[in-house]
Amino acid sequence: MFHDILGPSWNIDHVVIGPAGIFTVETKTLSKPLRGRAIIRYENQSLKKGPFDISNYLDQARAQAAYVEAWLKDATGQRYAVQPTVVFPGWSIDSRDADPQVWVMDLKDLIESVKARHAQLSPEQIKSAASALSTEIRSTYIAV
Q: Which of 1, 18, 49, 64 could form a disulfide with 24 if both were Cys (CB 3.0 to 4.6 A apart)?
């Protein structure tokens, strides 16, 4: 797992690489309501926190995954599918109308989903992707 990866003008909170695949994880810590349950809902392919549209988090997750996919392709010559993910720790997620391309869940559900997923990557692919990302992170932080 890699943390706080710098992009051109933003960061990726986490990148997870393992047998289940590669995941970009954007973590959102939001204030909970004073009363009632803390629920994030999908409505007509939009993401809502109460009456507020927070669909920009979906766009952010897609962009981060696309960035990592492109970067890994350039760095390794291999094409990797990267699963964009947004995690809302401590929130319930109503995902009946979810965008299947972006996982939105709490941390516990993310861990369970990754564990339940069939192997997507070979040990060689994991090593190649992790090594390339590790090298990039070191060079980025040294340059800063």
A: 64
Torsion of Cα atoms, 118 then 95 then 81 then 141, to 10°: -110
Smallest Cα–Cα separation from 49: which of 2, 92, 83?
A: 92
Spatial distance between the Cα atoms of 87 and 26, rounded to a whole number of angstroms: 6
3-state secondary structure of 25: strand
Say how far apart CA 84 and CA 80 lie, in whole Å.
13
Confidence class for position 144, pLDDT limits 50, 70, 90: very low
Q: Which residue has the higher pLDDT, 109 or 137?
A: 109
9 pLDDT more than 50: yes
pTM: 0.88
Residue 69, SS3 per DSSP: helix
- Tokens 């970067």 locate to 71
φ, ψ (nearest 5 deg) of residue 71: -65, -45
